[in-house]
Design a protein that fits this description.
The complex is a heterodimer of chains A (229) and B (80). Chain A is an alpha/beta fold and 229 residues long. In chain A, 22% of the residues lie in helices and 25% in strands. In chain A, the strands form two sheets. Chain A has a nine-stranded mixed sheet with strand order 2-1-3-4-11-10-9-6-7, with helices on both faces. Chain A has a two-stranded antiparallel ribbon with strand order 5-8. By secondary structure, chain B is an alpha+beta fold. Chain B has a single domain, classed as 2-Layer Sandwich (Mth169, Chain: A), CATH 3.30.1280.10. Helices cover 30% and strands 30% of the residues of chain B. Chain B contains two helices and four strands; from the N terminus they run E-H-E-H-E-E. The longest helix of chain B is centred in the N-terminal third of the chain and has 12 residues. The radius of gyration of chain B is 16 Å and the shape is elongated. The relative contact order of chain B is 0.35. The chains are: A alpha/beta (229), B alpha+beta (80). Chains A and B meet through loops of A and helix 1 of B.
Chain lengths: 229, 80
């Protein structure tokens, strides 16, 4: 089982993803530079977190023009699994692989802390191994994670089951208080219609060992490993 | 060559927390007659005189702004 992680100038979670996927989830992992012209043969592509292109223009806006992104978009359109975490999620929105956009957090602060998220359903390659009803303890670290979509888009992604993760309290209740950044409907992660592309703001790769405070992120990588086998 | 000024702002229906905070600060410093503030970004494109308008619009629409949340305005161009 192979995963390719794309490194952009300013990515800073690529090594964390590599470690989580290789050491904790059992993937063979290759890092590819964003200027590479062809994507290695792979079962999974990961767009890691960070500050690609210094967040210039808009978060994720310039990374989408990287040569390798053309290949990633092609891979996704053919049904290949693509996971975008934090800045990776922002890149997926700017690339048009996922609907919506990000606004600044309503607090106007960079938020770096652990939050709880709840999987909406378990019929996805990303959530199949997550315990039903469990609230996952996973960190977020972002300034622009306030998910926005217009009313029609929101209705569609809700009805089609494209919302995979919502911010919740520790018991899994989706409340306004548990929403750290103002995201509409507490949305923390969405997938495309086909279900192969997931974007999420929380960092599962930072929650894969007890000394990282939580192991809850592992369930997502295990879901992927088992589903792609 | 000519210079094209472009302003990108959030769409009216999209909330602008930065503008709201600036409005509150203005009110707390006595500028209470200011009803609201909206923030945006300013760009200057230096382009050849004969660059076609369609291309300029495409750049504004597809790159300088994100049409999901933002709109752009092209201001009066300036000869340079």
């Amino acid at each position: 089982m192979k995963a390719v992680i794309i490194t952009f100038p300013g990515s800073n979670c690529d090594q964390d993803c590599l470690w989580a996927l290789r050491e904790k989830a059992g993937f063979d992992v290759a890092l590819q530079w964003h200027r590479d012209s062809s994507l290695e043969k792979t079962d999974l592509v990961v767009l890691p977190g960070g500050f690609s292109y210094g967040d210039y223009l808009r978060t994720g806006a310039l990374a989408r023009f990287s040569p390798l992104m053309k290949e990633v978009i092609r891979f996704a359109q053919k049904g290949g699994p693509v996971l975008g975490i934090c800045n990776g999620f922002q890149i997926l929105l700017e690339s048009g692989l996922l609907p919506g956009a990000f606004l600044k957090n309503t607090t106007l602060r960079f938020i770096c802390r652990n939050v709880f998220i709840k999987a909406e359903h378990h019929d996805s390659i990303y959530t199949s191994a997550i315990s039903k009803g469990a609230a996952l303890d996973i960190p977020i670290a972002h300034y622009e994670g306030n998910y926005y979509a217009d009313t029609a888009t929101l209705k569609k992604i809700e009805e089609e089951g494209q919302v995979l993760f919502r911010y919740s309290d520790k018991d899994g209740n989706v409340t306004e208080k548990a929403n750290p950044n103002g995201s509409v409907n507490n949305i923390a992660g969405i997938c495309n219609e086909q279900g192969n592309v997931l974007g999420m703001m929380p960092h599962p790769e930072r929650a894969v060992d007890t000394y990282l405070h939580s192991c809850d992120g592992l369930a997502l990588f295990k879901s992927l490993y088992q589903s792609l086998k | 060559m000519k210079k094209i000024p472009v302003i990108v702002t959030l769409k009216e229906e999209v909330s602008d927390p930065e503008g709201t905070v600036i409005t509150h600060s203005l009110h707390s410093t006595g500028h209470t007659s200011i009803q609201s503030v909206r923030c945006g970004k300013y760009f200057e494109l230096e382009v050849p005189e004969d660059m076609n308008q369609e291309e300029i619009e495409a750049v504004c629409r597809d790159v300088l702004s994100n049409p999901v949340i933002e709109e752009y305005r092209i201001l009066t161009e300036e000869k340079i």
